[in-house]
Amino acid sequence: MNTKQHTTEGPVLTVENLSLSFGEKHVLQDFSLEVNQRENVVVLGKSGSGKSVLIKCIVRLIEANKGKITVLGEDICALEREKLDQLRRRIGFLFQSDALYDSMTIRENLSFPLRTDEEQKSPGETEELVMEALKNVGLEKTVDQYPSELSGGMKKRISLARTLMLKPEIIFYDEPTSGLDVVTGSEISDLIVEIREKYNTSALIISHDMHCAETISDRIAVLIDGKCHAIGTYEELEKSEDEKVKQFFHQAHENKRK
Question: Residue 212: what are its φ and ψ, rounded to 5°?
Fold first, then answer.
């Protein structure tokens, strides 16, 4: 599907010894992680543990104090503004808030990212891309509606459709199931897996939702005290004897019993 052919040798994302402090508060401390091609990696952590800050550092919305970040083969910390913007166009970002423009129709919301694309599209090509993205999230009929007319789950799907407009190679998801009921959250989790299959994307997913983590992850990195405290598959971490890791799975097991 992606007409922009890029090749990335090795991992699509490497974070090495990343540290960030706000005054006396140490948010990240020598955090390291790799994401491989077509891999979904979940960063699991409690609220306020620095998960969202990690993503902002990776796309350089926040400058880290120390460390190296390589995205799609590029040292993101060393890029000048123009090259950084070019790289960001190869990255998808699903915000925790849907970040849709209330005054625009769904068609206009989805068309908006194409305005900054180097490959300018004709109106016909734009319409085709809009309908393709909506079809992939199951919401073709919403094209002429406004965000205020949609449910929370539908807005999340539309936000994901907009992320897909530039055919990203890697997608960052910030709490994709936050604020959704259990059923809708499960549907979004399933959709994230489908997107990987259709678009051959890699993904880094920030979450504290254990059901989401179980559904979509190839591996899970547990963020505790600013460090990558543990990493492995859901099944591997579920069997961990580490008390700090076990606390995440205890609540998940309680919820399954209900």
Answer: -60, -45
Distance CA(246)–CA(236), nearest Å, equals: 11
Give the integer Cα–Cα distance in Å for 29 and 226.
5
* The two structure tokens encoding residue 87: 């790289």
pLDDT tens per residue across span 48-83: 888 989 999 999 999 999 999 999 999 999 999 999
What secondary structure does DSSP assign to the chain, as a single string? --SS-----S-SEEEEEEEEEETTEEEEEEEEEEE-TT-EEEEE--TTSSHHHHHHHHTTSS--SEEEEEETTEEGGG--HHHHHHHHTTEEEE-SS----TTS-HHHHHHGGGGG-SSPPPHHHHHHHHHHHHHHTT-GGGTTS-GGGS-HHHHHHHHHHHHGGG--SEEEEESTTTT--HHHHHHHHHHHHHHHHHH--EEEEEE--HHHHHHH-SEEEEEETTEEEEEE-HHHHHT---HHHHHHHHHHHHHHH-
Tokens of 242: 């580490």
| Tens digits of residue pLDDT in 160-203 | 999 888 889 999 999 999 888 899 899 999 999 999 998 899 99
C-alpha torsion angle, residues 25, 35, 95, 143 (rounded to 10):
180
**What is the rounded distance in angstroms from the CA atom of residue 100 to the CA atom of residue 158?**
8
CA angle 108, 59, 163 (to 5 degrees): 25
- Whole-angstrom CA distances from 127 to 49, 110, 164, 221 are 41, 9, 14, 39
* Single pTM value for the model: 0.87
